[in-house]
Amino acid sequence: MLFTLKKFIGGLLLPLPLLLLVMGAGLVLLALSQQPVADRLLAPLEAHYPTWQPLGETVKWIVVLGGGYTWNPHWPPSANLINNSLLRVTEGIRQWRAHPGATMVFTGAAAPGNPVSSAEAASRVAQSLGVPASAIVVLDSPRDTRQETVSVAMLVGQAPLMLVTSANHLPRAMGFFTAAGLKPLPVPANQLAIESPLQPQEKILPSPLWLGHSERVWYETLGQAWQRLLGIADRPGRPSMLSPSCCQPRAPLASALVQPRDQFASRAHEQVVVQLAGVNIARRRLPDGVQPASAKKRLRHRRAAEIMKQ
Question: How far is CA 60 from each of CA 124, 136, 155, 189, 267, rounded to the nearest angstrom?
Answer without folding.
Answer: 20, 12, 12, 19, 24
